[in-house]
Design brief:
With about 950 residues, this protein is of the alpha/beta class. Among the domains are: about 140 residues, no CATH class; about 200 residues, polyphosphate kinase like (2-Layer Sandwich); about 170 residues, Endonuclease, Chain A (2-Layer Sandwich), CATH 3.30.870. Strands 14, 18, 19, 20, 21, 23, 24, 25, 26 and 27 form a 10-stranded mixed beta sheet that branches. Helix 19 links the parallel strand 11 and strand 12.
Length: about 950
Amino acid sequence: MTTTMTMSAFASRVSLAGASASRATTASNERRAMRCGPMRATSRARVSSSFAATTRARGDGGVDGVIRAFACARVRGQAMTRGAFAREDGETDAAEERRRRVARAPPRFSSTSSRATGAVDELKEVLNQSISAMTTVTPPFYSEGVIEDSETLSDYEVDALVTDDAVFNAEMSWLAFNWRVLAMAADESVPIFERLRFVAISARNLDEFFAKRVGAIKRQDAAGVENLVKRRGRSVWTPALTLQNVATEVERQVDVQAALLENHIVPALREHDIRLEHYSELSEDVQKELAKYFEEQIEPVLDPRAIDPCHPFPFLGSLSLSIAVEIEDAFKQEKFAIVSVPAPLDRWIRVHKDSSGDDVQRFIPLEQVIEANMEKLFKGCNIVATHVFRVTRNADIERNEDEAEDLLEMMADEVRERRFASFVRLEVQDTMPSYIRDKLVDSLDGITQTDVITVPHRAPLGFGSIDSLPVDFGMDVSLIYPHWAPRTHPRLEQVRGDERSIFAAIRDGDILVHHPYVSFATSTQAFIEEASRDPNVLSIKSTLYRTSNNSPIVNALIKAAENGKQVAVLVELKARFDEARNVGFAQRLETAGCNVAYGVKGVKTHSKASLVVRREGSKLVKYVHIGTGNYNPSTAGIYTDFGLFSCDEEMGNDVVNLFKFLMGHHYQERFSKLIVAPLRMQAEFVEMIEREAQNALEGKPASIIMKMNGLDDPTITAALYRASQAGVKIHLIVRGICRVRPGIPNVSENIRIVSIIGRFLEHHRVFRFENGGSPEFYMGSADLMRRNLLRRVEVIARIYEPKIQTELQEMLDACLADQVLAWEMGADGRYYRTPASRKVADNHQAHSPGKAKLMKVSATEGLHEALMESTLLSMKRRDKRVNVATLATKKIKRVDRAPKQVLERAPRVGATPQVEVPEVSDVSSTISASMSSTETTRPNFSDVINASMNESIIMSRDELL
């Protein structure tokens, strides 16, 4: 239950927390020094001791006061909790730990908690206030060495701004993005089960963040690169400092995740008869039923392992849950064992109805059932205590492609090696005794005290699985977002019914499909599937980076090869976390007779491109698809992406040359209508940015709008700063990490940065340059990240079709008008949802035409709701036009039979009526042309679905990281 406080009362509470913090410094620093090293402990002490003066100076503290209050009160709460377990005089280590176990907090999610001390309640009050603040401004709360003052940054040279970790650090920027994801879980306008999903998404993001980013930093730290990086810029964080700041920030996120679950989401779910129970809260009958379930379904799969000189520490898979067991044998000797929680078993067990016969859906985590029945695994022994923990292994494996004779074999080996990589994170609950934690740290290769993340006992380890609850929503649709079914693009409607070839539709003009508003199955998937069946298709070429299990795209390519077509597929084996799946796809395609390449040595192929060559009469026509997202029907339902279909000859030739580069030894820097990385993409973007700067200096129209997932390339960043100094209005819609800092006096005052987090994952990459009044539009697979521009094969296509340019412009305008899902970066590097930022947004719309109604609904109801409603409206208008066309056709047929009847009934005097009957085919083509050219107007939209990401995704996977 959320605690309500007035700002004055809250300020008083904050002052109390700040005053108490100095008394807690010694205890909190002791813990921090043990976990995080001396540097972080020192910085936390400084924050704690100065906090009271800061809050007094700020009055109620505003948003900053709330955020810093939480950071300080958390330290105070930890210190007071430690005080409750302080060692008594003359007490031995063993006696102290036994007493701690007795005094330890009750089980997670317990509704009958008896530990509600004044200190914990006070901490919850401050924490609840900070969660409320998260819907207005997101953390990070505080990081060692970060410069927030824009006036200070105005003294920096541009080159220092783009290299200084005090201005931008990739890891902290990524964690700030995850705060924005977590803020959706704090948003009470989001359906409650979707809020639960956002907690899970933020947790899965952290899993991959540690496996990928932290793993790479630990490699740098182990390699001793500290002295090398110091020469990079004015202020560069060492790997050790980065790891310390990351650990501090992650622990704060975990605290908020736990608080959201305990104080907000779980109680709200209870109101809907969905309960996350603890084993001790279940009735005796239900416990007996679970004990039987344990014996039949769980115990046979378990592998309890004793830890002693004869039994080495067991293998633990990455992201696996395990239980440390303290045992006392028949001779009263202390023993230690590990029980791994089997990954193949469902994490959440649905508990059958008890004798009360109510309709409550009850769920209990698998590890609790194992803990409750632990004595069955160690008969003859006394179970003293059990402690759940979780480990993460490094996924950043060093590879040497130059020495690999077979890339397929090398990647298969890497997948196997990753299972045994060093550990990068140990997650434990705050009730785990220090000597058990130390034992685990000593036993896990690569783990130090800094790598231990302490999770509040009130929440389960591994939040990422919590949205996998097998809930039956029944008629209670308020728990989740209303169902959205993607529609078929109007130009492809007849293709769906086999009335017309998809290639005929593309010949009528380029087609832009917008997922997930437009169906992937009836557009991109249909394009490949029809090509596989069409007897006139001679060749199909495609790139695969990520796709789904049992992928219909892979199946269609295999079918095409079986039908005798020439099929060439580039399967990127180095797609992080999808290596094993892609190895399997490559082997299947090769077995079917496809020509398979594994990528370009030294770079990843991240481009999304397909080429279909079709014989039409005496010539060969090249049909292409260029996309911003993967050929993956699963993510196409939750990622926002564009796909372009075209049979333009120049673009077709470009794609032919692209596949010559990917599949053979063809090198070509410039293309007619494509920009390709790593050949010249970075250089061409810099040239276009500099052209805008020159136009601004010459008094010509100059502006830039870019939409992407991440921006961290220093060269691009420097070019944008200089363009801003020249007077170019720059709008950056960047969902994730962003190196650019807006609002720095005399540097970036003309730059605005927006991040949109919502029901769908914003994923498309679109770029607009004003070009002196003749705008240029581009779309494709590349973010403006250093890795994308220099270490990946990326493809961006220029858009020439005016109607498609209008579609892109409308989408960009709607993004910039959004005041529901959009966060705006301030000059301090934080992201805000405030009236001030909305006013800025309004001011920046003058240069962009757009559609007023679409922008209005985006501003009031959110981008995703606006585009869903817009899609529905266009479908209704299309259906209306189809009905009119059908009626016209029927009338024409009746008129076709009319002349004889008319002549028979005509007056005997006067001329014979002349009935002009147009050809049915002419009428149909005329109506079809009007359908494609008619511009729809936007409706007055209905109540908002405060849209947000829904992820089986993970989101994120490759794109988030």
